[in-house]
Amino acid sequence: MKITELKLRRRDYWLSLQAVEREENGPSFMVETTTTDEEEPVLDYRVLCFSYEDYLVIDWTKAFPGPNPLNLIASRLQDQDLTDLQKEHGIISFKTKGVRDRATYLVTINTVRS
After folding, report:
1. How far apart are CA 53 and CA 10, in angstroms?
2. What are the C-alpha distances in Å from 26 to residues 62, 96, 98?
3. Per-residue CA distances from 90 to 3, 60, 73, 109 (Å)
4. Residues 21-50: tens digit of each pLDDT
5. Is 60 exceeded by the pLDDT of residue 83?
6. CA angle 86, 91, 92 (to 5 degrees)
7. What does each C-alpha distance from 29 to 6, 18, 36, 56, 99 come to in angstroms?
8. CA-CA distance, 72 to 99, in Å (whole number)?
């Protein structure tokens, strides 16, 4: 699937963010200490999202509740930034690389929950 096929309208959506792969001994901005048998926490945000042509825009500056995760993933994404982009039953999910901590994040945008 491509971003142009999403046709995501400009509005607030619930977005979940979870680190699924992390570079060994790499820095973690989500938790203080991470062991191999602990699952990374899921962060939920109400955030303005929309797709425009071949861009997926996530406006982190207006995320609720804060703190805004500006240092986790980018706010403007293109097809080359995403892997496993899927849309099923109003749930958009994809994986993308982190901005500063070299982790891979699973992002889920719920277009059904209001």
Report:
1. 13
2. 28, 17, 12
3. 15, 21, 22, 8
4. 887 655 555 555 445 557 788 889 999 999
5. yes
6. 40
7. 29, 11, 16, 23, 11
8. 5
Query: Which residue, 112, 114, 92, 113, is CA-closest to 17?
Result: 92
Tokens of 68: 């805004």
Structural tokens at position 21: 């792969």
| pLDDT above 80 (res 2) | yes
pTM of the model: 0.82
Residue whose tokens read 């891979």: 104
Instruction: Report DSSP letters for the chain, one per residue.
Output: --GGGT---SEEEEEEEEEEEE-TT---SS-S---TTSPPPPEEEEEEEEEETTEEEEEEEEEESSS--TTTS-SEE-GGGEEEEEEETTEEEEEEE-SSS-EEEEEEEESS--
